[in-house]
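Researcher: Quick test of sequence recovery. Tokens follow.
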């Protein structure tokens, strides 16, 4: 009996078909040079498109334009600016790591990130490893003060004071969660030392949990703590960057955002939010090939 062919090839199967090493297949996929899909984190290759690609059908490798979405970490100032600038871009903010994968798969034109990399700094190590050879650019958005959001008058003054307290936690793909885990480890604490209210998806949801009395603390932005008239324990000034498709950078949607960010209104709003340093906004931090 003939075994029916599956609609998708695995990385190993495509490597065997092309008689190359699997590493070469990953390189081709990262550069967008071979038809592929990322499904639940796994690379799969549509058989019909691969056969057309091997046969020299150039059209088979043409990739659709990225979705007009800004993904990644939720930043209140960016969220506001996208609307006020009339960019027409939608927002899907589900964490720094989620946004990086969405952009890689064509699900976004831009993603916000604040991934702490220890002494190496912020964001760039991950981008270099994930997107070597891709036509992308990393631009500075802002430096932001992160710390503990607590009720006014709270006795929580350090991370170690969270032991046994009820904490509103960000999801695992969020840059804020990575930072919280880092500071918790420094304090000798793990998730088992807190009472976890649950995982929330945005900075504002975390602050709302504290403001409503459902949580004793959350890890988040000074800007959001001020918005809800909450106390704030500063822990770090982080670097929030935007990873942008190079082609999209020059299109009207993105250009309208950059133009708006040069306005007095934008600068005044950043000051009103508090906890932001936008003096380096637009600085080019990394350029892919």
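Model:
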């Amino acid at each position: 009996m003939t075994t029916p062919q599956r609609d998708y090839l695995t990385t190993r199967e495509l490597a065997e078909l092309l008689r190359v090493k699997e590493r070469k297949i990953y390189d081709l996929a990262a550069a967008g040079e071979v038809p592929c899909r990322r499904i639940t984190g796994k690379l799969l290759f549509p058989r019909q498109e691969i056969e057309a690609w091997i046969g020299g059908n150039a059209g088979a490798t043409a990739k659709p334009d990225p979705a007009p979405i800004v993904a990644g970490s939720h930043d209140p100032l960016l969220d506001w600016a996208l609307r006020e600038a009339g960019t027409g871009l939608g927002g899907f903010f589900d964490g720094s790591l989620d946004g990086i994968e969405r952009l890689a798969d064509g699900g976004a034109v831009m993603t916000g990130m604040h991934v702490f990399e220890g002494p190496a700094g912020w964001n760039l190590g991950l981008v270099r490893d994930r997107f070597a050879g891709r036509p992308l650019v990393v631009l500075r958005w802002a430096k932001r003060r992160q710390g503990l959001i607590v009720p006014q008058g709270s006795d929580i003054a350090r991370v170690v004071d969270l032991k046994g307290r009820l904490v509103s936690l960000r999801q695992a793909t969020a840059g804020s969660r990575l930072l919280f885990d880092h500071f918790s480890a420094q304090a000798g604490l793990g998730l088992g030392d807190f009472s976890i209210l649950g995982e929330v998806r945005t900075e504002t949801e975390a602050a709302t949990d504290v403001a409503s009395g459902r949580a004793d603390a959350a890890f988040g932005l000074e800007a959001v703590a001020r918005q809800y008239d909450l106390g704030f324990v500063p822990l770090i000034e982080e670097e929030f960057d935007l990873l942008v498709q190079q082609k999209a950078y020059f299109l009207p949607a993105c250009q309208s955002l950059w133009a708006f960010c040069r306005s007095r209104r934008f600068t005044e709003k950043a000051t009103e939010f508090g906890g932001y340093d936008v003096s380096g906004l637009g600085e080019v931090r990394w350029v892919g090939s």
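The mean pLDDT is 91.
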